[in-house]
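In response to reviewer comment 3 from the previous cycle, which asked for concrete evidence that the modeling workflow produces usable outputs, we include below a single protein chain processed end to end. The sequence was submitted unchanged, and the resulting structure tokens are shown without manual editing.
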Amino acid sequence: MRVIETGVYRGPHFYSHTPMVRIRLDLGALEAWPSDRLLGFNDALLAMLPGLGQHGCSFNEPGGLVRRLRDGTWLGHVAEHVAIELQCLAGSPVTRGKTRSVKGHEGVYDILYAYREEAVGLLAGRLALELVDSLLPLDMRGVQGLDRIAEDEQADLTEADSPFDMPAALDRLARLVRSTALGPTTRSLVEEAERRGIPVMRLDEHSLVQLGWGKHQQRLRASITGRTSHIAVENASDKDLTRALLTQAGVPVPKGSVVRDAEAAVREAERLGFPVVTKPLDGNHGRGVSTGLTTADEIRRGFAEAARHGRRVVVEQHVRGRDHRILVVGGEVVAVAERVPAHVVGDGRRSVAELIEEANRDPRRGEGHEKVMTRIVVDEQVLGLLARTGFSLDAVPHAGRVVQLRETANLSTGGTAIDRTDEIHPENAAIARRAALAVGLDVAGIDFLAPDIGQPVRETGGGIVEVNAAPGFRMHLEPSEGRPRDVARPVLDILFPRGETGRIPVLAVTGTNGKSTTVRMVAHILRRSGLRVGYTTTSGIYVDDALVSGGDASGPKSARTVLRDPTVEAAVLETARGGMLREGLGFNRCDVGTVLNVAADHLGLKGVDTLEDLARVKSIVAEAVHRDGHSVLNADDPLVAEMERHAGGRTVYFSLRGGADMPDFLRRHVGGGLLAVVRETNPHGGEIVVHDDRRRLPLMGAAEIPATLGGMAEFNVQNALAAVAMTYAQGVPLPVIRGALVGFTNSFEQNPGRLNVFDGHGFRVIVDYAHNPAGLSALCDLAWKLRSGYRRSIGMVSIPGDRREKDIREMGRIAAAGVFDELVFRERPDGRGRADGEVMRLLSEGAQEAGFPPERIHCIHDEAEAAIACLRMARPGDLVVLTPSSVEEIWQQVVGFDPTASPPVAEVAATAWG
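The workflow returned the following structure tokens.
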């Protein structure tokens, strides 16, 4: 077997809306060996992973995968299920997966499966292939390219014929889960957000998470929210200040003070009266806390322990009672748990060490915060407490004897939790609420000691010993005993009240040509409607028309940059095929998804070989539209119009064929009261008309939009139709749309590299990023319409080298189709796999095949030199059309060109193709 490539989809993608890992696997000779032909394979596999017996596979019922194995299935499909099962066993449960053969490549499969943590998913894929390989006959073993999936520090130490070490593999995965997965508190908040349809974006490798998008986002780290006051957190971290604030608020707290040395601690204890507690001033998780101290020596030891965790130490009265954690959210008590310190109960037979080992076998216990409870770790504090209570690890306690292992009841040190939410007395709840408000925390964990939480603490004795910022939710979500509490819900109620989802309008645009112009038109309209707009194009990321980051920004990473911006009120995202194929969309759903057109470009790359394949990729955007949104589709492109069958939301068509020319399906659409935007032809370039709810709403003449060059640039008329449909569907009033489009021009500042016109040298220059046959054809159509007004025309043309040879030659033929008198072909800055000069050669061959005179073909490698050559050839009354890669650089050349310094035409002609 050989791994060809690996991909990670982080958003909706070609295969699913679920984030997935993709492994492209070449089975090679193993294509002839499905699972039923491999003697003993199925039984060995199920023995190693008995959980596979519950996988439903295509039968959607337990045992479905076993049936497939017995009947015979390919090893790629087996690896998919193994990767899923390994993740589940490691504590990262997932269910979805699929394996598909790769068209045109026999024995090659795309293995796809879901993941929760990206690194865990990748390692699971590698281990799955290693496991499957280990079950094959020796002469069939050996997987190549595993490093394409995940690095393995043990790879060089593993023999090809060694058995698969399942415990070690699961241990590696589990450790990776612990280091990368969200903790229980953050995870509960994320899952609650997802249930509400609130977008979630993880911002770092730890627990910093963004809920919502743009202006409406909220950020949190565990239970610290974006609304948590920094002052309140500082208050809570200073235990002495907390006690003072609570005392001023009339809340019962133990008396105490801060000391700086052990002897001062002894003196303070004598003043307060024994027993006392010592703890670090700014500690947490019970670290360095010693309770029930009754002698000077114990206090000195307690001071030393606390001083290990903080420079200053608190000595305070010991409050007797059971340890409770009261969770207060938004000034309301939402959960109460009684915390029981780590302990074991004797049985008269086993030692303390054996009892601890037995307690740690409880499947609910894990490392750190990964499970309901934490394993009990024997350390100096445990040994010290055992010694003080007359025990050791070897001691065998009597049956029923409780052996205390920790003084504090923190879950992180092995404690357990019992839900007491329904038992708290209203007066105690009121005290807890008052404490949270006094400190200023929106989410607070109140450590409340009371003999009986169901009785008023002012009568029974007790009080608050700490107020904690960033309280953990684990004890409430999954108590050791009692009813679990949904404590994430009230936090989300604070952050997103009244059913808010934290979303901003997201409008996504895809298609072969016209994406950038349409995005800019839509952004322009939305700004005129009063919104702060973030948008992405192939020329950069913009927020409120200010460039945030230059370069091609049409992928998912750039989309996420816009959605993370806290000032953005609407996002308009150019969504190119490359990013969708590489990692899916940068958002999970959109309000408007627009597909402009599907034309031959990038075919033969990444498994996209036909126009139908390309249409399937583009349709991802329309399928990501949510049920209340709008899919805006080009009715004039059959491949796009057909996407209506799978598109999300309500379909909106746009078309250049309005009025009497309207196709039947579009006429039925409009007749049914559905939304469409069309151009109705007239002698003045046509009129843009909106059809909505059986109403005909004239908007404006196409020629009124400067970007259409008086209606002659039909591709920009089409882009304007799409922009009108998108913004009208979003509720922008027609007068606002019209006013915005009247102000949308072809200037470089407003729409760089898209039909930019410069008339400053006595001849006209058009700069346009036409980089494929369809784009160049549209540009040449416009040049032909303009041709009669100019003496002659000169064109600079190129195409990326990773396009098919026939596409490159087609570019040459289109350029030679009677529009230009002189042609300059150039290379792209990046040959993209082709030999130097090969693109120019193929373009020239295509042009000559179309009958273009070879003496008027000029091949100049460098783009800047090619552009200058075109400008030098031009004379007053000429038209120069430049199609650059480096748009800004070439535009600056055009603007700064000095026609008086132009050399004779003969010098340029000398560069003609040999």
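Residues 756-909 form a domain with the Protein-Tyrosine Phosphatase; Chain A fold (CATH 3.90.190.20). We consider this sufficient to address the reviewer's concern, and the full set will be provided in the supplementary archive.
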